[in-house]
Fold each of these.
Amino acid sequence: MRPIDERAIRASFINASRKEVSSVSLPQGFTEIDFDRIDYLGWSDAKFPRRAYVVTEVDDTLVGVLLQRAEQRVLMRAQCSWCEDVTLRNDVQLYSARKAGAAGRKGDTIGTLVCAEFGCSHNVRRLPPLAYEGFDRETARELRILRLQENVAGFLRAVAG
Ligand SMILES: [Zn+2]
C-alpha cells in the first residue's frame, strides 16, 4: 500500500464517531512501517484493549474501520478470512465492525476472523511450499497477495454498505 500519515488515518474512518477517531492511538513503531510490504495497516489500540483498526485503500480511497474484538479468546488454528493461510499455525481473532451510516446507528455489525496480530501481509509474502513438480511458487505468492488485497477491500466495502 502507499505510505500514509496520521492525518490521513484519522480522516479515513467510516464507522467511528468523532470522539472515537480522536482517541485512536497509532500503531507502535508507526514511523518505521514499511508500507511496501503490507497490504493493509491493522493494529490493536494500546489504550483500549478490545479496539483494533484496519486501514487501506479501496478503489483509490483510504478507508479506515474500527473493529471491536468480539471475545478475549484467541481461536487456535482457525483460518483467517483475509489471508486464508492454511499452512501456518494461525491464531485468529473474531472481530466485529459497526456498519457505516444509518445501518450502524441501528446496530448492524459485520464479523470477520482475522489473524490475531494482523500478520496477513507477512503470511502471504512467504514463499508457499512446492505443491507439485513445476509448481510456480512465485506466481502463487503474487496471487495470494492479490487475494489478500481483495479480501480486505471486500470487507471494507461491506462495512461501508
Ligand atoms: Zn490473516
Amino acid sequence: MNLFIFILGTVIGSFINVCIYRIPRGESIAYPYSRCPQCGYKIAARDLIPILSFLYLRGKCRRCNAKISMRYPLVEFLTGAMFFLAFIKLGFSLDFLSAVTLISSLIVSAFTDLEYQIIPDKVVLTTAVIGLLLNILIHGKDVLYYLMGSVLGGGTIFLIAAFSQGGMGGGDIKLFAAVGLFLGMRLTLLSLLLSFILGATAGIILIVLKLKGIKDAIPFGPFIALGSIASLFAGDKIISWYFLKYAHI
Ligand SMILES: [Zn+2]
C-alpha cells in the first residue's frame, strides 16, 4: 500500500509539473497533450511515466534531444515522498486528504515562484476553498480556529509587506492565508517563524556567496512551502522540543 501511495504521489507530481509550466502562461491544465517546448513533439504515453521516463530518455526529448529540466523528476519524486510520509503519519483519512492538498499546492507555488516570481491566484484560491471545506468536515464548530490561523498567516505577511515595501507581495499574503486554513493558529505561527528563519538564512548564504546582491529580491514562496510542510509533519514535535529545551516546562 505504501508503494502504491508513493506512485500515486509521483503521478500527481507529474500533473503538478504541468501546472507549474502552464498556469503562469495562462494555458489550460486540462488540455490533454504535453508537447516538447523545443520541437512541438507530442509526448507519447510511454514517455510520461513519472521519474522513469526521465531516466531512460536520459533527460532528453525523444525526437530533438532538447534537454528536459531536472525539475520534472525532482517534483515527481518530492511529491511521491511527501504523499508517502503523509500516509505513514495519517493513514486513510480526511486529514491525509487535507495534508496532500496543502502539500501539492505548496509545491506548485514554490516552483512557480522560483521560476516565474508568480504565485498564481488560481492555485491559492482553489487551495483555500478546498481547505475551508475539508476543515468544516473535519473540525466542525472548531473551524473558527482555522479561520483565525488564516487571518494570522495572511495578516502577518500583509503587515510585513506594507512596512517593508517590496520583498513580499500579494501572492505570499494569499498563500499564507490559505496555509492558515489547513494548519490553524498554533502551527501557522510556527510556519511563519520557520519560513522567516529559513528565508533569512538562505538570503544571508546567497549574499555571502555573492550569488545575490543585498537589494535583490529572493522569492519567498519556497520558504513558505518549506516552513509549512515542516510544521505539518513535525510541528508538534518542534514546539515541544523548543519548550523542553528553552522554557523548562
Ligand atoms: Zn523535442
Amino acid sequence: MNTPILVSKDQSKAVQEIKVGDYVYVAGLDLVWKQKKVGYSGGSQSSKNTRQPGIIFISYGQEQYLVVTPDSLFLMPDQTLKRADKLTIQDHLLNEKGQKVAIHGVDSGVYRGGFHHIATDTQEPNENLDGHLVIANGIVCADYTLQIKYHGDEHKKEFAEMPTVGSKAYNDKYGVVKDQAIRNKNIDIDFTPSSEIAIPKRPADALAFISEEDAQAHLEYGQFRDHLDPVSRSWIDYLFTQFKLHYPDINFSVDWNNDEVNAYAWISNGERHVQILGGLVRSTTLELEGLALVVAHEIGHHYGGEPTYPGSTLSCEGQADFYGARNVMRKVWFGEFYISVTEKAISQLADFFGVASTDMDKQAAFMGKNTNGCEHPPGDCRIETYNAAVDLKPKPACAG
Ligand SMILES: [Zn+2]
C-alpha cells in the first residue's frame, strides 16, 4: 500500500490509486519505457487491523524500502526475475535505467495493512515481457500478470532450490541482516520482523508430539512446503482460533522459523502452553485436519488425566493421543464434522508416521523399545489409538 508506481516519465502515483484505464509507465526486458493503459487493478482492503504474516521487507539504495508479498518479482542484472522471499544482500535490484541498486537488508515478518496489484493486461507475456515490468519506488519489478505466471510449476522448481528469507538454510548462508530502518522504527509502515515477534520459550522438559529420534528422521527424510507457505500458516491461524474458543486457558503459539518437526505442551508459572514448530506445519504429509489432531494431542497432555508423567499433571503420550482424538476433537468439531475431520486427520498422520519409518534400522530400534511406559508408542499403535477413539472403543493396550 502507498507504494509509488511510475505512471509517466516524471510522475508517480500510489499503487492503490491506479485504476483500470489509467496510464502507467511500463517496459519489457529492454527497459524501453512507455505509457500503457492499466487493464487490471485489485487488492486487499487497507486496514491497520489486517495482520499479514510472511511479508517481505527490502531496504535498498538511499534509505529506500519496499514491503511486498513473498511472490513479488524483481528484475535482476542477468535479466531473470527473482522472488522477493529469495532475495539476499548479495543481489542487486535495478532502477529504470538498468543501473544496479544495492540491497541492504531483507527480512520477513508481519505487516499490518493491505496490498494492491496492477497489470496492463492478462495476456501471456512475450519473451521480452513487453508491458509487464513496472517501477515501484524506483525499482524495476513485475506486474501482477507476471507474478501469477511465475506461480506455475516451471518457475516453482527453480525457486524451491533457493533458500527462503528467514529459514535456517538462508540464515546459515547469508547471515541475519537486520535493517537499521526497522530497528530504529523510523519508517512509517507497520512491519514487525519475525525475529522480533515474541514466542513463549519452551522449557527443556516440554512434552513433544514425537520423539527426538523421530523428529530427526523427519528432518532427514521428510518433504516440506515452502518456508513462508501462506496456506499452511492460515490453517494454523484458523485452528488456534477454533481451539482457543474451547480451551481459553491455553496459550497457543507457533515457532514459525523453527524448521524442526514437532509440537509441544508444557506448564510454566501456572500457565498452560501449546506450541507448534514451523517444520511440522510445513510437512507435506499434514494438512488442516492432521494439524488439528496434533494440536488436540497437545491439549490432551493438559486435560487427558491419568496416566500422567511421574511428578506431573500432564498426561502420558498414549493417553494424550486417546483423549485428544476422542474428547478434544469431538468438542471442537461438532457432530458429522468430527467424523470427517478426524478420519482425514488419521489418514494424514498415518502418512506422517510413515515418513519416520523410511530408515529401517531406526524403525527397528524404535519398535524394539519398551513403549508400555509413558513415552511415545510406535506410529501404528498411535493410529490404532485414534481409530479406537473415533469408534468409542477402549484405549488399545499398546498405548499404555
Ligand atoms: Zn505428546
Amino acid sequence: MSQQLTLTRIETLRVLSCMGIDLPAHTKLPDDALEKRLRQALNASQVLLTITSSPVLDILSFSRWPSNKKQTVFDAIGRASMAEYGAIMAKRAMGLSTVDPLRVDPFDDVRQTVMHLAKNWDEGYKVLLVTDPQQSEAEKVPINIRYLEVRMINEHTPLIVLLYGPVASSHSAHREAASMWLEEKLDDIPRAADGSVPMPHIKASFEEQKLLSKLLSQNAKYVPAEYDHQVKRTQAEPASLYKTTFILPLNPLSFEDIGKLNLDTGCVVCGERVSSRCSQCQSVSYCGQACQRLDWSSHKRTCRSLKGGTWFTIPLSGSPEGSQPGKSASVLTWNRFSVPRKALDVKNVQHIDPEKTFPNIHADKVFLIKIQLSAPINPERSMMIYDRQRSFEAYWLLDAETKELFEKFVIEMQGPRGGYAGLKMYRWARRTGDKELSVCLDRAPQESIPW
Ligand SMILES: [Zn+2]
Ligand SMILES: [Zn+2]
C-alpha cells in the first residue's frame, strides 16, 4: 500500500481535537476549510503572526543563537501550560519520567519532537531522520532533516532553520530520494567501534510524521526566496525534493486562540450558515433538517437531558477576597506561557483582572460546568464554577440581588438531582455575556463525568 505524508480528514479532526478545537466527527466542513483551521491553529501555536506580520519571515534579520553553552536551544524551546506544568512537577516529585508515551496525542508528540530537534542541535548533530519504528522497512516514509542554523527571535525563542524532505509525490520516488540522501550523509558520520553508523533519529508515529510534515511545509512558505537561494544543496538535496523551512517553539493553544478557532463554526454538522436550533433543547444550531437528522445520534443524549429544562442567568466574578490565602482576588487561568518550561514559576501565572472578562472557548455552544458550594463554615457564601478544560474559574458571590436564585441553586444541589453531599453538581451551561452564564438548573447531565 502506498504511504503518503498527508493527514487524512479523520486525522485532521483528531489533531484539532488534541489542540482543543472540537468539531463533530461527522462534520461536512469541506477539506480546505478543515485544512485552513489546522493551519491557523499551528500558526497560533507558534505565535507566528506576532513574530511576523508579513507573509515572509525575514530569517536574516535575527541574530544567530549564541553558541556558548549558557543557554541551550533545548532549554529555551520548551513550552507548557499551567495545567501541564502542574502535571510535570507532580511527576518529577514522584521520580517519574516527564516524557509522555508516543502515539497518544499527535500534537503533543510533535511538540516533543521539536524538543528532540533542539537537543540534537545542542549535541552537535548536523542531520537527523524522523521515522516510525512500527512500520516495516518497505512502508517507512522517513523525513530527512539537515540543520542549517539557529537564530534568535528573543532569548526565550530560538528559530531552528532546516532543510527537510523528500517531498516526492509517490511512495517509491520518496523512498528512492530518501535512501540517496542517507547514503550521502552516512559518509560524513563517524563509524562506531563495531563498524555501524549511528544515524541520529527521532521515533515518531505515522500520524505525528504527517503532522510534522504539515508544519514543515506550511512554515517553508514563510522562507524568503533570497534566503532559500543561498542555501548550499548537495546532489541528493535538489530544490525539487528538499525545502528550506524552520521550527519555532510550539505552545499549547491559549484559551483566546481556542475561542477564536471554535467561533463561526455555523451548523454543527456542515459549517454552513445556521437557520434553526434544535426545538427540543435550543442548545445546537443547524442549517436545515438534513444535518439535524445526521447529528441526532450524537446529540440525543444531551438533548434528552436538557429537554424542558429551566435556564437561569447567573453573574460571574473573581474569587472572593481573602477566602483563599495567598491568592489575590484575580482569577487563575491555565493559559499559554511565552516562557520556557524550565523558567516557569508562580510569577509567570497569568492572572485575569476581575474587571476584565473571562475567556470564552465555547462560543455560543452548550457545555458542562461544575458548580461547587463554599464550605458551610466559610462566612462568605459563594459558588465556584468551572468547565472541563478549566478555561475559566469563576465565582458567584452571594449578594442581595441574586440571593433568591442562589438559594434555588443550593436547594437543587441538595435535592435528588444533586448528590456529592449536597456541595456540588454538574449542569449544562451557555455563555450569554462576558461575565455571565446561563445554566440549565433542573436537568442533570446523563453522561458520566470524569472530572
Ligand atoms: Zn448543516
Ligand atoms: Zn436538542
